[in-house]
Amino acid sequence: MPDSINTRRRALLRTTIAGVSLMELGLSGLVRAQSSDTTASTKAATRVTSFEHIRQVNAGALNIGYAEAGPRNGPVVILLHGWPYDIYSFVEIAPMLAAAGYRVIVPYLRGYGTTRFLSPDTPRNGQQAVVAADIIALMDALKIDKAVLGGFDWGARTVNIMAALWPERCKAMVSVSGYLIGSQQANKAPLPPKAELAWWYQFYFATERGQAGYEANRYDFNKLIWRLASPTWNFDDATYDRSAESFKNPDHVAVVIHNYRWRLGLVNGEPQYDEFEKRLAMGPTISVPTITLEGDANGAPHPDPAAYAKKFTGKYEHRNIGGGIGHNLPQEAPKAFADAVIDVARLA
User: Fold this and answer.
1) What pTM did the predictor assign?
2) Which of 17, 32, 214, 249 holds its CA 20 to 30 A away from the CA of 70?
3) Who's near 325: CB < 8 A, 6+ residues apart?
4) Is 211 part of a structural domain of the chain?
5) Pick from 246, 253, 245: nearest CA to 211
6) What residues have CB less than 8 Å from 331, skipping those under 6 apart?
7) Which residues belong to any copy of the AB hydrolase-1 domain (predicted)?
8) What is the CATH number of the domain that holds 95?
9) Angle in degrees, CA 35, 293, 255, rounded to 5
């Protein structure tokens, strides 16, 4: 280990970060802690390169892999990634929140990383309700009654669904690109040509050629999505490769393909989620305290904030994040996301 890293770690061990020790954080690469007169999210200025430990727990149909940071008795924050990303979208956010006293849980969604199906007979289902049910099962397995939820892309849709269907489990929510609950019926309506063009991969995945192409080229395919969705984010190969390991999950392609085909009504979901989907198809409002975020350079399809503001009937705030921030907002603007989590928790 380089002497510079040893020096930084020795310095960190001498510094109290909101009462949280380095061992409690469970993260590597923390550089320094700032004085107590700074905001909570900036108390731990970070240069984080990895989560040190990935835990595993049986939850519902899955054995879920997840990273954890912060004190075990702290208020819980659960952070959810999307496609084609993984838990490393939150690798710099987790220590910021841990330094503020939160217990941070960052799980791999089904089809990503170390998360595995417990049975080979379970459908590799990617419909919207099942991903939310997975996280409720995770909370049950970890004996977490209620949490602040945060997410983007699939993760934002999932926290929206959890807040709509199980508001008693959601203390507050941060959602990138706002309200993303959808329905198969709504997705039947054609969009203007320019909007349809942005969904090119959804139509590609609807074909057998698309499934075979994604299976054969998922590394390059997902790297292309990263560049298109965040056109001004100059990530390096090491950053992408770290997340690309998650796409090697044996169920990744099946879950992704099912997700997009389900949206278009080309495949069915599982019957036990039909009632959930009926409720979601009605576009339920969300009453828990919410902050929505949008980057100024989001190259992925996303709604205008004005279109969804009325969906949030509780305490609500929208924040536009400038500086060339694309679709992967948590990784591109970690401080802005961490600040939103801390602020929304205070609204609850």
Assistant:
1) 0.87
2) 249
3) 230, 233, 295, 296, 297, 298, 332, 333, 336
4) yes
5) 253
6) 85, 88, 89, 90, 91, 92
7) 75-205
8) 3.40.50.1820
9) 110
Give the domain range for residue 139: 51-347
Q: Does residue 217 lie in a domain region? A: yes
Is residue 103 helix, strand or coil?
A: strand
The CA-atom distances, in angstroms, between 53 and each of 85, 231, 247 are: 19, 32, 19
What would the two tokens of residue 313 be? Answer: 């009937």
Is 15 part of a structural domain of the chain? no
What are the angstrom distances between the C-alpha of 278 and each of 154, 184, 262, 281? 19, 10, 14, 5
The verdict on residue 23 lying in a domain is: no
Per-residue pLDDT of the chain (348 residues; tens, 9 = 90+): 444 334 334 343 333 333 333 333 444 433 333 333 334 444 444 467 789 899 999 999 999 999 999 999 999 999 999 999 999 999 999 999 999 999 999 999 999 999 999 999 999 999 999 999 999 999 999 999 999 999 999 999 999 999 999 999 999 999 999 999 999 999 999 999 999 999 999 999 999 999 999 999 999 999 999 999 999 999 999 999 999 999 999 999 999 999 999 999 999 999 999 999 999 999 999 999 999 999 999 999 999 999 999 999 999 999 999 999 999 999 999 999 999 999 999 998
The answer to whether 172 and 343 have CB atoms below 8 angstroms apart is no
Listed residue (140, 175, 183) closest to 154, CA to CA: 175
Q: Are the CB atoms for 80 and 109 separated by under 8 Å? A: yes
Distance CA 69, CA 153 (A): 22
How many domains, in total, are found in the chain?
Answer: 1
